[in-house]
Amino acid sequence: MTNDEKTWSVSDVLEATGGRLVFGDDTSRIEGISTDSRAIQGSELFVAICGQKYDGHEFVRQAFEKGALGVLVSEAYMATQSPHFGKDKCWIAVQDTLNALGDLAAFRRRQSKVSVVAITGTNGKTTTKEMTAAVLGQTFFVLKTPGNFNNLIGLPLTLFRLKKDHEWAVLELAMNHPGEIRRLARICKPQVGVITNIAAGHLNGVRDIDGVMKAKGELLETLGEDSTAVLNIDDQRICLLAKQFEERVVSFGIHSSAEVWATPVSQTSSSCSFDLCWHDESARVRLGIPGNGAVYNALAAAAVGYRLGLSIAEVKKGLEDMVPLPGRMEILTLPGGVHLINDTYNANPGSMALAIDTLRTLKGHNRGILIVGDMMELGEYARSAHRELGILVARTGITRLYATGEFAQDVAEGATRRGMDPGKIFIGSHEQIVEAAKGRMGPGDWILVKGSRLMAMEKVVEGLRIDDPWIDN
To answer: What is the model's pTM?
Structure first.
């Protein structure tokens, strides 16, 4: 591989993947790797991934038409196809193209001098990643996962962006089935592994919360002798994992029993503040995100900075410089003096409980309104989890509940079972909820909108932001 971080030789690809060169010259130069035939730029290699919706092999011709120098396809595809196009280009066949993509990323990782922070957990991964990158960016040249490129496709695409000047990469690792985090960690080989928390999520792939714990623990299993685990010791299941990890641990939490801790915590309508502490040092930190979840995310990032030798002043600056991401505890002001918490990016029982607690804190003596969509990937626990959500809503004293999705009735059932007035509950589509909610909101109200990514709850936020008359009743 040359010093140009984007350039590969075909022989590099063959070495990394163990693939077979069907057509082409192994001395040809590849100028990048892509899994999207629509975005191919000249002389790139198109990797044909079989996804849930599309099979990349269907777009091989399109990739060549876009100027691809070559394609990486499955042996099964080559066995059933006799392509009469692109034979003047490079064709590489492998057993599994998704595995090959990871192998290419692992090859790039080995060729780089970069060190890696890998972050996983049920909730807060992306915000922790952003905060950690902002902290390390005070001292180092940092690559970070763009958006949520955190799976077996996204993480390799992130590593392909490595440049020779990068000193640290801050990567997010997600999973929806056992073994995925182990594979991701083996690809990126982290020096620091962070686990933010362990809660119910992706249960259809790992059965129960103990399955979640085991899956997240795969990160620790891959850490080498000189690596560090940064762990939330306020989480009982993470404490169990810590006992199994014999190497160095840096702990974080709200209490002073952790190496990096926060006290006291105060909340405003758009931020939270706390004293960041380690050893005999402390600094007051103000985050542009409300809620205790943000505090834990910041402590995880601070613990990484502490481990890497940054000063507490550098960590403070990085945390305070971090720009909150859209759709994650984003505070908006609507017409009529109504406050909206846009937390529509994703949802599971743990993150839903944290968001509702934040709503309870921020609303004070004002009315709190919850608009929820389904929490996905909960398998056999889906209905019971949504009923528990309804119980939590009623127990928290939410004034009105609006629900949409397959499990909306389960949320309503849980709320009414706990004593919430059925007249304060509305079930409908996004559009129906917007119409119904607009007629019921008034000055000082606080609204939380949340649901899993596939529920597209941002449509509700967009509908509520349209400047229409508001009625207070």
So the answer is: 0.90
